[in-house]
Amino acid sequence: MTTKMPNKKIKTIFNVVEEKSKPARMNLYGFIGATYWDDEEQSVTTKAVNQALKEITADEIDVHINSYGGDAFEGIGIYNALKQSNKTINIYIDALAASAASIVAMAGDKIYMPENSQLMVHHAATMIYGDASDLESAVADLNKMDKSLVLTYMTRFTGTEDELTALLDAGTFLNTDEAVALGLADEVIEYVEPQEPQEPQEPKEPEEPKSVANIKEKLIAKYHGKIAAKVVTKHKRQPTIAEKLINLAKEAE
Fold it and tell me: What is the DSSP letter of 42?
């Protein structure tokens, strides 16, 4: 199945920011792989990631991803580079990790998704022109690539290989709770307003979906208990200067 992505591309950015006593930050934004329209230094490639890993001194790296995908081989290459780095890899899906970018995301020791982000998985795809022999060869190559993709996803996927294949057949977008339930993410990041401390509450069991008409809903219905077991990381918004002054005035009264 071919899944249509938005026409407007995400600007390609590859860089690393490193500060003492903090995890290094690696930004992987835009197309996965080399392109004709981006500078080589900005291209998100296995070569660039390997070079950056050699130069990073920190033992922990926060890898931030926002990408529609790109070259599947580059996605697998970057995945393997991160896994072989002997560093703790924290993946943050800033908005979207689709296609080859979702393969890169699987390299995380922990995968964090802000509550408004998404993950997207699908079968390998290509564009081909030629005769029947060319097309048959392309199909064989795509089937081989699919096996590589499945092997990567199955390092985390909660269900069976047949269930994963069904998701790939459908070309599936997953929200945060769905990704966590299926084992493709670990924690949901929520941004909450500052408030008075409250007694911790037990997580509620997610409701059973009313309809299980498609494969994604069936799998979420089957594995939804995984969501409640996961930790939710909540980032509090810091009060503004005006709010701080108002609070100080109230305390002075």
Answer: G
On whether the CB atoms of residues 117 and 95 are closer than 8 A, the answer is yes
* DSSP element (H, E) containing 144: helix 132-153
In the three-class reduction of DSSP (H, G, I as helix; E, B as strand; rest coil), residue 22 is classed as coil
Residue 232 identity (one-letter amino acid): V
Helices assigned H by DSSP within the chain: 46-55, 72-83, 100-105, 132-153, 161-170, 176-181, 215-223, 225-229, 241-252
Provide the 10 A C-beta neighbour count for residue 99. Answer: 26
Structure tokens belonging to residue 168: 């790939």
Length of the chain: 253
Q: With H, G, I as helix, E, B as strand and everything else as coil, classify residue 106.
A: coil
- Backbone conformation region of residue 99, classed left if phi is above 0, alpha if psi is from -120 to 50, else beta: left
Q: Quick one: residue 21, left, alpha or beta (phi over 0 = left, psi -120 to 50 = alpha)?
A: left
Could you give the CA distance from residue 114 to residue 94 in angstroms, rounded to a whole number? 7
118-121 vs 187-192, strand pairing mode? unpaired
> Structure tokens of 152?
């990567």
Q: Is the pTM of this model over 0.85?
A: no
Give per-residue pLDDT as tens, 194-247: 666 667 777 666 555 554 457 888 888 888 765 555 556 656 556 666 666 666
As a whole number of angstroms, the distance between CA 253 and CA 204 comes to: 40
Query: 112 near 186, Cβ under 8 Å?
Result: yes
Amino acid identity for residue 165 in this structure: T
Residue with tokens 């926060």: 62
CA nearest to 111, candidates 130, 129, 89: 89
Under 8 Å between Cβ of 48 and 73? no
